C-alpha cells in the first residue's frame, strides 16, 4: 500500500489519471442521480373509488367517484366516474313491500361492480343517504322506514365493496354537503381557483350559494354578509386553512311534489257543489283526479284535512300563471318572524348575498322551460314566459313535447310558478339579484348535489388545513441538484489545477 502511494505522489500522470477517473465517476453519479430523479416521476396514477347512493323522495341515483390515490387531500381532484339512475320510485315508496326497496338497487350496483376495477372493490366505500321522502316516512311510520333501511343495507352488504352505512341524513347535512359539493367542484377551496365551471367570475375565497329543490324538501345554503343569528341555521367549517360561516335551512314539505300537494290541499273548496274544481296551475284541457286519502296521507298535508264528503276531486286546468302563483303563495306563512329577517314560516334567513347555483329540480324545470340563461332573462321575462306556457292548451303542449313523461310535462306550469314564488317571495330574490342565480346540472363532469360533499367528508378528504406543498417545484429541485453537483465538480477541478491536489477530500475516499 505504501509503495503504491509513493508511486502516486512521485508520478504526476497517475495523479492526473486518478483525477480524470474521479471526474468521470462524479459525472457518472450525477447522471445516475438526475436520471433516477427524473425517472422517479409518479408512475401511471393509482385510482381510488367511492360509491354514494342518493335515495331521494322521487328516485334513487348511484354515483361513483374516482380520484388519484396520492392526491387524496388536494382539492378538486375527485371526479364523477359514473352515475346510474335506479329504475322505479324512491325507496320510501316501498313502505308496504320493504324487501323490494333493496332489490330495486341491484341493477345499478351490478353496474358499479363492472365499472370499478375488481382489485379496487374491497377498498371502495359505499354509502347510502336517504333524504326527505324517508324523513316523511319515518314521521308517518317509523317501523316501515327502519325496514326499508334494513332492506337496502342488506342489498348493499351483498356486494364486494366496503359497506359504510345506509341512513337518513338530516336536512342540515343535505344543505351543507350540497354547498361543499358545488364549491369543491368550482375550485373555490383552492388557493388559486381553477375555473372549469360556469362561474368564471367567482374569485378565490368567494363561495357559491347552493339552492337544491327536491321532490319533498328544498335547501338554501350560502355565506351571508351579516353574522348568522340562529345557531340551528349556522354551520362552521374550516376547510383548507380557511374559516367559513355558512347559513343553511332545509324546508321539509317544500320540495316540488309535496308543494304541489300542499297547494292543491290548501286551495280545495269545501263548499263546491260537486267534486270538480278549477286549477290554474294545470293547462286548459288537462284534468286530473286526486284521491283525497292519498292527498292527506303525507304529514305535509295532514293538517289541511277538510271534512269533505267525496273520496276524490277532479282538477280541471285553467292555465293561468299569475292565478297559479296566487294559489302557491298560500302555502307560505310570512307572519310570526321572531328574528331580524325571515324567509317564511318563521324561519330566520339573512339577506341574500353572492352568487348561487340552483340544481336538481330547479334545473330540470328551468331547463325544460328554456329559462336557464339568466344572464339574459330578467325575472319579469321569466314571468312573461310562464304566462305564455301555462296558457298553452294541454293538447298543444303534448303535441310539442311527445317524448316528455306526462307526469313531468303536466306539472311544469306549476313547477315554474312554484320556483318563482319560492325564490322571489320565499327567499326574497328580486329583479336586481335574479341574475346571480345560475341553474346548473353539472360542474365539469360531476353532478351538482349533496353526494360528493358527503363522501368527501366521510372519507376525510377535506382537511381543515391546506396540505403543505413541497418548497420547490419538481423541475426546480432537479435543476438545483444538477447545478450544485456541477459546481462542486468545477471547484474540485479548479482546486486541483491551482493547488496541485484535489480540493475535495471526499474524492480520495471515493477512490
Ligand atoms: N326531468 C325531470 C326529472 C325530475 N323532475 C321532477 O323533479 C323532482 C325530483 O327532483 P329530485 O331532485 O330528483 O328530488 P329527490 O331527490 O327525489 O327528492 P328529495 O331531495 O326531496 O328527497 C320530481 O318532482 C320530479 O317529478 C322533473 O320535473 N323533470
Ligand atoms: Ca334530492
From TrEMBL:
Residues the entry annotates as binding ATP: 215-219
Cofactors that this protein relies on: Ca(2+); Mg(2+)
Alphabetical list of Pfam families matching this protein: GDA1_CD39
Catalytic activity entry: ATP + 2 H2O = AMP + 2 phosphate + 2 H(+); CTP + 2 H2O = CMP + 2 phosphate + 2 H(+); ATP + H2O = ADP + phosphate + H(+); GDP + H2O = GMP + phosphate + H(+)
Transmembrane stretches, start-end: 17-38, 474-499
Active site (UniProt): 174
Source taxon at top rank: Eukaryota
Keyword Nucleus carried by entry: no
Topology in membrane: Multi-pass membrane protein
Keywords: ATP-binding, Calcium, Disulfide bond, Glycoprotein, Hydrolase, Magnesium, Membrane, Nucleotide-binding, Transmembrane, Transmembrane helix
One GO molecular-function entry: UDP phosphatase activity
Subcellular location: Membrane, Caveola; Membrane
Gene Ontology annotations for the cellular component aspect, listed alphabetically: caveola
Enzyme kind, highest EC tier: hydrolase
GO BP: nucleoside diphosphate catabolic process
Main location per the UniProt record: membrane
InterPro entries per record: GDA1_CD39_NTPase
EC number of this enzyme: 3.6.1.5
PROSITE patterns the record matches: GDA1_CD39_NTPASE
Protein role: Catalyzes the hydrolysis of both di- and triphosphate nucleotides (NDPs and NTPs) and hydrolyze NTPs to nucleotide monophosphates (NMPs) in two distinct successive phosphate-releasing steps, with NDPs as intermediates and participates in the regulation of extracellular levels of nucleotides. By hydrolyzing proinflammatory ATP and platelet-activating ADP to AMP, it blocks platelet aggregation and supports blood flow.
Family: Belongs to the GDA1/CD39 NTPase family.
Quaternary state and interactors: Homodimer; disulfide-linked.
This protein's name: Ectonucleoside triphosphate diphosphohydrolase 1
Amino acid at each position: 500500500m505504501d509503495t503504491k502511494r509513493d508511486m502516486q505522489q512521485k508520478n504526476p500522470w497517475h495523479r492526473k489519471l486518478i483525477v480524470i477517473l474521479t471526474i468521470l465517476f462524479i459525472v457518472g453519479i450525477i447522471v445516475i442521480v438526475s436520471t433516477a430523479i427524473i425517472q422517479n416521476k409518479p408512475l401511471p396514477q393509482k385510482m381510488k373509488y367511492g360509491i354514494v347512493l342518493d335515495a331521494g323522495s322521487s328516485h334513487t341515483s348511484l354515483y361513483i367517484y374516482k380520484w388519484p390515490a396520492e392526491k387524496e387531500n388536494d382539492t378538486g381532484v375527485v371526479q364523477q366516474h359514473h352515475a346510474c339512475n335506479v329504475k322505479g320510485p324512491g325507496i320510501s315508496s316501498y313502505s308496504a313491500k320493504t324487501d323490494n326497496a333493496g332489490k330495486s338497487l341491484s341493477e345499478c350496483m351490478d353496474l358499479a361492480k363492472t365499472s370499478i376495477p375488481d382489485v379496487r372493490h374491497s377498498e371502495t366505500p359505499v354509502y347510502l343517504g336517504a333524504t326527505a321522502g324517508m324523513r316523511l316516512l319515518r314521521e308517518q311510520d317509523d317501523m316501515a322506514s327502519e325496514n326499508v333501511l334494513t332492506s337496502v343495507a342488506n342489498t348493499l352488504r351483498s356486494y364486494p365493496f366496503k359497506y359504510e352505512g345506509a341512513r337518513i341524513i338530516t336536512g342540515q347535512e343535505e344543505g351543507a354537503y350540497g354547498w361543499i359539493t358545488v364549491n369543491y367542484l368550482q375550485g373555490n377551496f383552492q388557493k388559486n381557483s381553477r375555473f372549469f365551471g360556469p362561474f368564471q367570475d367567482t374569485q378565490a375565497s368567494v363561495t357559491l350559494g347552493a339552492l337544491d329543490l327536491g321532490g319533498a324538501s328544498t335547501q338554501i345554503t350560502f355565506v351571508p354578509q351579516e353574522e348568522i343569528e340562529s345557531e340551528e341555521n349556522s354551520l362552521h367549517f374550516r376547510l383548507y386553512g380557511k374559516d367559513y360561516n355558512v347559513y343553511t335551512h332545509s324546508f321539509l314539505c317544500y320540495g316540488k311534489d309535496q308543494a304541489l300537494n300542499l297547494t292543491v290541499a290548501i286551495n280545495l273548496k269545501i263548499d263546491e257543489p260537486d267534486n270538480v274544481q278549477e286549477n290554474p296551475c294545470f293547462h286548459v284541457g288537462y284534468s286530473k283526479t286526486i284521491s283525497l286519502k292519498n292527498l292527506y296521507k303525507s304529514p305535509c298535508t295532514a293538517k289541511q284535512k277538510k271534512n269533505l264528503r267525496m273520496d276524490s276531486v277532479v282538477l280541471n286546468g285553467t292555465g293561468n300563471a299569475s292565478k297559479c302563483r296566487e294559489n302557491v303563495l298560500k302555502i307560505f306563512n310570512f307572519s310570526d318572524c321572531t328574528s331580524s329577517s325571515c324567509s317564511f314560516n318563521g324561519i330566520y334567513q339573512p339577506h341574500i348575498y353572492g352568487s348561487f347555483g340552483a340544481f336538481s329540480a330547479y334545473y330540470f324545470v328551468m331547463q325544460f322551460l328554456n329559462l336557464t340563461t339568466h344572464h339574459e332573462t330578467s325575472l319579469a321575462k321569466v314571468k312573461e314566459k310562464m304566462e305564455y306556457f301555462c296558457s298553452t292548451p294541454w293538447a298543444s303542449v303534448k303535441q310539442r313535447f311527445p317524448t316528455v313523461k306526462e307526469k313531468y310535462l303536466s306539472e311544469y306550469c306549476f313547477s315554474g310558478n312554484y320556483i318563482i314564488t319560492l325564490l322571489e317571495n320565499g327567499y326574497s330574490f328580486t329583479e336586481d339579484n335574479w341574475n346571480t342565480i345560475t341553474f346548473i346540472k353539472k360542474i365539469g363532469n360531476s353532478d351538482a348535489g349533496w353526494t360528493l360533499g358527503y363522501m368527501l367528508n366521510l372519507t376525510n378528504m377535506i382537511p381543515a388545513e391546506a396540505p403543505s406543498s413541497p418548497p420547490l417545484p419538481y423541475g426546480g429541485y432537479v435543476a438545483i441538484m444538477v447545478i450544485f453537483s456541477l459546481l462542486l465538480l468545477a471547484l474540485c477541478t479548479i482546486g486541483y489545477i491551482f493547488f496541485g491536489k484535489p480540493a475535495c477530500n471526499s474524492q480520495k475516499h471515493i477512490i
